[in-house]
Design brief:
This protein has 82 residues and is α+β, with helices and mostly antiparallel strands. It has one domain. Helix content is 28%, strand content 30%. It contains two helices and five strands; from the N terminus they run E-E-E-E-H-H-E. The chain has a five-stranded antiparallel β-sheet, covered by helices on one side. It starts with a strand and ends with a strand. The relative contact order is 0.20.
């Protein structure tokens, strides 16, 4: 299966993250809006591995929103135009 949907995340900002490894896209729905934001990525499988590794650690400081923001800032995720 090439599409993975992550809901009920430990986040005050992010409602869900959907990773499509075939299309190399990541769709994020923020809690502040019902709109979905679609991002492209070079390697969705690698992004998914990093995403999951971020939350495998029992760390209270883990932040889904911070991880997504860092991924956008460092160019791992690029927002696609509507």
């Amino acid at each position: 299966m090439t599409v993975q949907n992550y809901q009920n995340l430990p986040s005050s900002a992010v409602e869900s993250v959907t990773i499509d490894s075939e299309a190399n896209t990541v769709v994020i729905q923020y809690k502040s809006s019902q709109k979905n934001y679609t991002y492209s990525t070079e390697d969705a499988d690698d992004f998914q591995s990093q995403f999951l590794a971020e939350f495998d650690v029992e760390n209270e400081e883990t932040s889904v929103g911070r991880f997504i923001n860092q991924s956008v800032t460092n160019g791992t995720l690029t927002l696609l135009a509507d």
